[in-house]
Amino acid sequence: MVESRLIGPVRVVGAGLLGTSIGLGLTARGLDVILADASPTNLSLAIDYGAGRAATPGDAPQLIVVCVPPDVTADVVARELEAFPDAIVTDVASVKLAPLTELQERGADVSRYIGSHPLAGRERGGPLAGRADLFIGRPWVVAAHDAISYQRATAIDDLILDLGATLVEMSPEDHDNAVALVSHVPQVVSTLMARRLTDAPGSALNLAGGGVRDVTRVAASDPELWVQILGANPAPVRQILLALRDDLDRFIDALADPSAPGARRQVAEEIAGGNTGVARLPGKHGQDRRYSVITVMVDDTPGQLARLFNEIGEVGVNLEDLRLEHSPGAQIGLAEISILPEAVSRLTTELAARGWRIVG
């Protein structure tokens, strides 16, 4: 068992995906984790899965982690601060300025509170989706403010490091602006694009490939949760959407008459601007190095994908990333293998010699 930086006990309020995962990660380090949830069923499930124990009279937690929806985060944090006057309290809501502002307006003791936000999750929620390794290697923002001392905030740093996450320090304002750009607006764009598919003919949907699937991947999200998130961070999201609307207007105007002087140049510059933006996204190990992609046809039978991985390893090429897509109406998959550009020729030749079909 790996020794924990925290002393404990740690009280986790909210036994959903994040709360249960935090509990599982900390109990694996031998910490005493106290679980609380408004749902007796969620609480029982999280306890049964080993994420912690039920609260008892006299509990004196060192740290309290509030894992509840954004619209009740400030209420629960205020209650925990009052109930446990010696504990440090954090929350994991995806917006940071609104809870802090509300707590300050209430006169809560924010000298013992600092918001945080792990950028980790899964496609499913609830205690059954909890995983002890959910946060490993993921960014976890600590939204510092002037009312809490560095010494008191150390417990939150220890929590993050214990769970294997990467600590990132930001102000609440900078955090909310950042997640508006990289999380909240992409959710809106994905959702609106997916709505265009609602009345689309089946013949069109049968042609769907990686492009539309990539754009709409996060559209299958919980509407109630996103109403709360967007309602708690409206100004930054609105500003980005207004700028995006201007971008769309330029594109629409250019497409009104593609043969007009400057129209094709406008379209080209907009697309080139997208190339520049996506090139700035950090890739593997935080680097922005670009990889080359080769596409391999894989029979949709057991063991074929494992065989492909094994033979790529035998060739001595490192697989940097992978995307798998199934071909409609055919029993094959298309494996898009991302590798270093200098390895493309060698890997293509070696895989072809081993009987793999390379697309393109």
TrEMBL record:
Residues 293-360 form the ACT domain. One of its GO terms (biological process) is tyrosine biosynthetic process. It catalyses: prephenate + NAD(+) = 3-(4-hydroxyphenyl)pyruvate + CO2 + NADH. Pathway: Amino-acid biosynthesis; L-tyrosine biosynthesis; (4-hydroxyphenyl)pyruvate from prephenate (NAD(+) route): step 1/1. It comes from the Bacteria. Keywords: Amino-acid biosynthesis, Aromatic amino acid biosynthesis, NAD, Oxidoreductase, Tyrosine biosynthesis. InterPro entries: 6-PGluconate_DH-like_C_sf, ACT-like_dom_sf, ACT_dom, NAD(P)-bd_dom_sf, PDH_C, PDH_N, Preph/Arog_dehydrog, Prephen_DH. Residues 8-285 form the Prephenate/arogenate dehydrogenase domain. GO terms for molecular function: NAD+ binding; prephenate dehydrogenase (NAD+) activity; prephenate dehydrogenase (NADP+) activity. It is an enzyme of class 1 (oxidoreductase). Its EC number is 1.3.1.12. Belongs to the prephenate/arogenate dehydrogenase family. This is Prephenate dehydrogenase. It comes from Cryobacterium arcticum.
